[in-house]
Design the sequence.
């Protein structure tokens, strides 16, 4: 090899070196020099070969190992895999590179090298065994926990759980925006959802608590909240139904088999609970059976559920109708369970939804409930009549046995997407046996009364309906029949005369029988036309009813009623909805009503109008604001038209002052609501105002004397109610914390008559709740804490009575190991009446042991363990007749041991 | 002596660290073919495949329930005699699809079954060498579902039409495989875009250590053809 430098030294001419070199080109050794120089000055054609062999440290040849050659700037210049012999070979330009060798199951190796020679051969490169660093990667396309798709909010439930959950209730409480209200209903953004669906079917109707407490958390796959839900029987093409539904999806492993559990608990003082839910989820059949027997105060339904299950299905126009009945028709077992001294309940529910084909659906729902409960309370009643104020101290001991059953069968035939035919039937049985021992002490006498009340009620409803879509128009029509029979036997035995009645002998015994019977046939038809951006709706509702009311007490004339009311009423109206823009809806409607009444052959009639208007802005399905004004009317029921007295209890009589069959009570209703739910920031807010103004109302005239009071139905000129409610819920993303708070302010201001003189009664309530809860996923415990309060103020003319309840609470739950989870609920309740104060400290610890390899769970549960003996709370249900301060015994606390077997 | 050596080798190879990869691949149309640039709801619905890689073999199997559908819509005519015009929309989908690759033995097996536009069933069974792609690795990186992926492009010609393929692979997962028949990059291909019309991507991915999954060659429903024989037959 010629050394370039050598040339420089030899050169003697002191001229340009290049010139020297070039001049040498033309000497004898030119050829070799020439090629040498060319070789140095043409780097473009310098391709080198890099090769090598890859093996493992244990001597295994690694074929299909990945080889990548990159420049120092991370640019890949060559790549490939090793052959069966573990060998590789690449062609690269001279330079510096990084050789990267990787193979699954081994640690990746990177070697820096420089190449300028023709070939570079690596000795066997050995890779060390190891696992690719990312040992277990679960790559999820969407790592979000709450996703909004159109009108549906999808909750990816597994993201919110931490393993201590037992049932659907525990899951719902952890999802942002969803919560369970005081009476067990599921709420979304503060408002109760319209439908609860399990696998798309409304298996539990409005009895959400049956679902939330019996569906185990292991069965739940995912939950979605659907706004503008359309059910199977809907053919209306309107995309905005305004119906909110929560759909709970069940895991596939629980489908097509019988699943459920057997849970039994027993503790001291014979406190027990046995609960057996069973479910079958198949594609064409969904069945749920729940059997329960307990004396812990758990009931399948509350007052809201009772009205919902016994409601007449005629209420098609979505207008709230208020029916005032004085016959004490609501069974006592519906009172909130924390106000009874002892309670025993047996109930069973069955729900079966079968879809034998795409066109037919059968829906059977039945609830049967037997309850036996005792109430012990004492009331300080203060009466104000125009002349004097007096009070009575009343001690009550009440026992009620009630048999309640509701059975609904609904069949839907949907031959195509344009027509639906429905046949609905419902049977309601409600029998009560109530025995009340009352001891009432006033300044003048000591009354001891034993009252026995046995109302027996049976209601039957049947309806056939047709819904049809014609082009983009919607037609609906139905005909229904309603039958009610209410038979009441009321007996009072007293030690002193009651109601200033002249008793013939010293036997102060009153026997009252009331028989009420209603037969009603109604038809409803409506036609909805959609054209361009307008919707025009025409409707007509007509009914004919025959009502009878007979009552008799000891053959006394003043206490007898023999009423027969035949009504024929018809309502025809139309509504117009405009959609000036995609987000705005304006509705206005007017309806014309006429009513013909025959009350005991006395004819009367009436004509009246109703109005409605609504303004709605739908920013998106999670942000809606609505303002509406309705002008409605309601007519009195036969119960308000009585001519003789009806005994309500040992010191209250019901009568009628001036209500007649053709009286109409109009009221104005203004509603405003605004709600926002943001699934990205997990924030929800709702604001709601309802204001009812009545210029002519069905009020009362109260006549009070020392021993009893008479409440007469009388028209008054004012009965206004106002309710404002605000709810805020936010789940923080930076910290695992969520905050929820709600505030409600309502008042009822009405005019009533006291001895025919005008008086004013006002009831005001402020209540609120503030709660913050943690949602640590891996921490040993989670908590939620807050405060609930409620303030009631009753003002009757110039005197007032108040009731305040403060309830700070702290609940902690956690897991010790995967098998043991615990839960501690603690609450301090402070009740304040006008004169008295009562504290109740409630602590309820629970421990659950989950046996991993079998289906057993074991429990030790305590409820209100500081009050195992006769706890008392205060209550206040003041009315215009009296101010009340009540002390009532509540259910004792208990400690029970239980097991649960899942199948 | 040699016997002991071979037994020892056998034992050692069994002790070789095993790592398997399992995942879910989603295949969806992002643009229509021909004159239909707007895809119907049905055509937009994606296909789901289960992907398994273990011991130098990989298997991709269709798991979502798919079938060819032909929907007829009646449109009310605006004319007085109210004639109804029928339009049909056909979406052709495979109801069975299996891609099998054996890298050690260099075997590629493809099983496809579908109903054509006349709703007649047709099956394809292919066995051939694993298709080789000439990839160009570019210096572009993108994060796909949390993984830093490198871009690679190539073209392929099917029935005379050339398609542009954009693939994104991740080097940390040293498997030279990818969805469908794509392979040959120094890392697992996590996403492929075919000619701007179709998107194939890994939606879920799991690497399990200490596990070997048995992957069997799929059974063929009809006679086996090589890729060339299949295209010849189509003509």
Sequence:
């Amino acid at each position: 090899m010629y050394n370039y430098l050598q040339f420089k030294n030899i050169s003697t001419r002191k001229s340009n070196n290049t010139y020297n070199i070039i001049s040498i080109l033309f000497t004898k050794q030119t050829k070799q020099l020439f090629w040498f120089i060319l070789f140095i000055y043409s780097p473009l054609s310098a391709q080198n070969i890099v090769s090598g062999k890859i093996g493992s440290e244990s001597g295994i040849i690694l074929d299909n190992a990945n080889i990548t050659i990159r420049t120092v700037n991370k640019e890949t210049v060559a790549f490939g895999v090793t052959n069966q012999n573990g060998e590789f070979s690449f062609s690269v330009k001279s330079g510096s590179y990084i050789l990267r060798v990787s193979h699954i199951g081994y640690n990746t190796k990177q070697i820096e090298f420089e190449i300028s020679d023709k070939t570079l051969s690596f000795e066997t490169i050995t890779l060390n065994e190891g696992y690719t660093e990312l040992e277990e990667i679960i790559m999820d396309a969407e790592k979000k926990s709450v996703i909004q798709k159109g009108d549906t909010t999808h909750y990816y439930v597994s993201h919110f759980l931490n393993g201590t959950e037992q049932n659907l209730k525990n899951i719902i409480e952890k999802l942002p925006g969803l919560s369970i209200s005081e009476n067990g209903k599921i709420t979304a953004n503060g408002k109760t959802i319209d439908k609860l669906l399990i696998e798309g079917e409304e298996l539990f109707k409005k009895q959400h608590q049956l679902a939330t407490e019996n569906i185990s958390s292991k069965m739940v796959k995912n939950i979605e909240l659907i706004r503008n839900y359309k059910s199977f029987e809907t053919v209306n093409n309107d995309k905005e139904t305004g119906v909110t539904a929560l759909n709970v999806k069940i895991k596939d492993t629980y489908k097509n088999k019988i699943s459920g559990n057997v849970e039994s608990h027993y503790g001291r003082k014979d406190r027990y609970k046995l609960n057996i839910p069973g479910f079958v989820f198949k594609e064409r059949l969904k069945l749920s059976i729940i059997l329960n027997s307990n004396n812990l105060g758990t009931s399948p339904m509350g007052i809201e559920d009772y009205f919902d299950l016994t409601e007449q299905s005629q209420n098609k126009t979505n207008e709230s109708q208020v029916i005032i009945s004085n016959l004490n028709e609501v069974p006592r077992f519906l009172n909130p369970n924390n106000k009874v001294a002892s309670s025993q309940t047996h109930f069973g529910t069955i729900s079966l939804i079968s879809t034998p084909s795409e066109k037919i659906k059968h829906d059977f729902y039945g609830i049967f409930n037997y309850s036996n409960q005792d109430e012990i309370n004492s009331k300080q009643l203060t009466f104000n009549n125009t002349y004097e104020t007096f009070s009575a101290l009343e001690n009550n001991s009440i026992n009620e046995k009630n048999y309640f059953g509701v059975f609904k069968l609904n069949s839907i035939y949907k031959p195509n997407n344009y027509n639906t035919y429905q046949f609905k039937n419902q049977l309601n049985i409600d029998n009560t046996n109530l025995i009340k021992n009352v001891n009432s002490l006033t300044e003048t006498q000591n009354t001891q009364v034993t009252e026995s009340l046995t109302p027996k009620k049976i209601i039957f409803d049947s309806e056939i309906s047709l819904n049809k879509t014609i082009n983009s128009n919607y037609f609906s029509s139905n005909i229904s029949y309603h039958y009610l029979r209410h038979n009441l036997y009321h007996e009072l035995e007293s030690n002193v005369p009651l109601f200033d009645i002249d008793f013939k002998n010293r036997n102060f015994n009153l026997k009252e029988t009331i028989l009420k019977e209603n037969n009603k046939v109604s038809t409803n038809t409506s036609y909805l036309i959609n054209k361009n951006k307008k919707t025009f709706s025409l409707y007509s509702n007509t009914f004919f009813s025959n009502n009878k009311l007979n009552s008799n007490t000891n053959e006394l004339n003043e206490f007898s009623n023999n009423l027969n009311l035949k009504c024929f009423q018809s309502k025809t109206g139309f509504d117009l909805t405009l959609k000036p823009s995609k987000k705005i809806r304006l509705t206005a409607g007017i309806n014309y009503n006429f009513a013909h009444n025959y009350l005991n052959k006395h004819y009367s009639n009436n004509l009246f109008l109703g109005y409605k208007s609504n303004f709605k802005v739908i920013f998106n399905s999670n942000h809606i604001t609505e303002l509406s004004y309705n002008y409605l009317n309601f007519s009195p029921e036969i119960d308000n038209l009585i001519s003789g007295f009806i005994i309500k209890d040992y010191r209250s009589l019901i009568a009628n002052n001036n209500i007649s069959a053709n009286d109409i009570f109009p009221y104005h209703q203004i509603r405003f609501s605004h709600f926002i739910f943001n699934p990205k920031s997990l924030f929800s807010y709702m604001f709601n105002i309802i204001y009812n103004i009545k210029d002519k109302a069905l009020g009362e005239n109260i006549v009070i004397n020392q021993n009893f009071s008479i409440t007469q139905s009388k028209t008054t000129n004012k009965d206004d109610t106002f309710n404002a409610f605000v709810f805020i819920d936010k789940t923080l993303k930076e910290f695992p914390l969520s905050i929820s708070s709600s505030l409600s302010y309502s008042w009822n201001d009405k005019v009533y008559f006291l001895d025919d003189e005008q008086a004013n009664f006002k009831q005001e309530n402020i209540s609120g709740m503030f709660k913050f809860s943690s949602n640590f996923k891996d921490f040993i415990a989670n908590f939620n804490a807050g405060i609930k309060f409620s303030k009631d103020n009753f003002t009757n003319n110039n005197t007032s009575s108040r009731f305040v309840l403060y309830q700070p609470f702290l609940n902690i739950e956690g897991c010790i190991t995967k098998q043991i989870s615990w839960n501690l609920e603690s609450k301090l309740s402070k009740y304040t009446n006008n004169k008295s104060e009562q504290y109740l400290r409630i602590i309820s610890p629970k421990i659950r042991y989950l046996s991993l390899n079998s289906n057993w769970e074991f429990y030790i549960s305590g409820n209100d363990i500081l009050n195992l003996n006769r706890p008392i709370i205060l209550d206040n249900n003041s009315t215009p007749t009296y101010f009340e301060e009540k002390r009532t015994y509540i259910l004792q606390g208990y400690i029970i041991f239980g097991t649960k077997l899942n199948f | 002596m040699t016997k002991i050596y071979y037994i020892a080798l056998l034992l050692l190879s069994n002790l070789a660290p095993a790592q398997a990869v399992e995942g879910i691949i989603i295949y969806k149309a992002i643009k229509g073919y021909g004159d239909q640039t707007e895809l119907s709801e049905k055509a937009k619905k994606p296909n789901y495949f289960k992907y398994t890689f273990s011991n130098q073999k990989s298997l991709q199997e269709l798991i979502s329930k798919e079938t060819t559908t032909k929907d007829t819509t009646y449109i009310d005519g605006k004319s007085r005699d109210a004639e109804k015009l029928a339009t049909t929309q056909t979406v052709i989908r495979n109801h069975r699809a299996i891609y099998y690759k054996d890298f050690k033995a260099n075997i590629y097996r493809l099983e496809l079954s579908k109903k054509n536009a006349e709703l007649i069933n047709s099956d394809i069974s292919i066995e051939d060498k694993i298709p080789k792609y000439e990839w160009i690795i570019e210096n572009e990186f993108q994060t796909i579902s949390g993984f830093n992926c490198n871009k690679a492009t190539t073209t392929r010609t099917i029935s005379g039409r050339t398609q542009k393929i954009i693939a994104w692979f991740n080097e940390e997962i040293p498997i030279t495989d990818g969805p469908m028949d794509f392979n040959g990059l120094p890392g697992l291909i996590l996403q492929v875009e075919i000619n701007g019309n179709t998107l194939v991507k890994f939606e879920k991915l799991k690497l399990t250590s200490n596990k070997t999954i048995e992957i069997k060659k799929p059974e063929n429903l009809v006679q086996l053809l090589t890729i060339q024989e299949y295209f010849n037959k189509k003509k």
User: Anything to note?
Assistant: Helices of chain A lie at 4-10, 17-25, 30-41, 168-174, 208-214, 303-310. Chain A has six helices and 48 strands.
